[in-house]
Amino acid sequence: MYGNSVNVALLLARVWVAFMILAHGWRHVKAIRSGPGMANWFESLGLKPGWLHAQVVTATELAIPVGLVLGLFTPLMYAGVVSLMLVAFVTNHLKNGFFLNTAKEGYEYVVTVAVLSISLGTFGPGKWSLDHAFDLAFPFAPKKALLVTALVGIGGTVLFLLTFWRPPKQAGSGS
């Protein structure tokens, strides 16, 4: 019915999201190499130990793009993107309001990427992927893929935040 148009669209989406995440990861590689600034920034957000989170986020942002471009374990790759974006939303962007055009970055971008990643993970990788080439059946039926992408992405975020996030005390909060 749709010919290859759906496969083209899914491939374009996978490659664009992969490029975007890789660009962030590469920027983080440079930041880590330049000194402790990124680790200190994570600490300032309440993510401790900052050095560990700087390394893990960077490694994640370098690994996920490979899986997305290849179309390998696609719902899990998108779940990783969801989790990255939702952690950024909660720890850094939520307090800044919705819009990006403010001096402090709002959350419209990270939430949009998270929602789109859940949607794209639901549709799977398309025929032009290693998932299809290897005939990987789990978890690519849309209902299962939606559950995997959303539950792993959102659940991973919740577990991560419960384990590692200790929000900094607000100035003047009296505690």
Low-confidence stretches: none
Largest sheet: none
* Count of helical regions: 7
Mean pLDDT: 92
* Beta-strand content: under 5%
Notes on the structure:
The chain has 175 residues and is an all-alpha fold. It has one domain (5-164). It has 7 helices and no strands. The chain has helices at 5-34, 37-44, 50-70, 74-93, 108-123, 130-133, 142-164. Helix 1 (5-34) packs across helix 5 (108-123) and helix 4 packs antiparallel against helix 5 (108-123). The chain is elongated, with a radius of gyration of 17 Å. The N and C termini lie far apart (62 Å). The relative contact order is 0.15. The mean pLDDT is 92.
Features:
70% helix, 7 helices, mainly alpha, 175 residues
List the helices and strands and how they pair.
Elements: H1 5-34, H2 37-44, H3 50-70, H4 74-93, H5 108-123, H6 130-133, H7 142-164
Helix pairs in contact: 1-3, 1-5, 2-3, 3-4, 4-5, 4-7, 5-7
Brief sketch in words of this structure:
This protein is 70% helix and 0% strand. It is an all-alpha fold. Helix 1 runs antiparallel to helix 3.
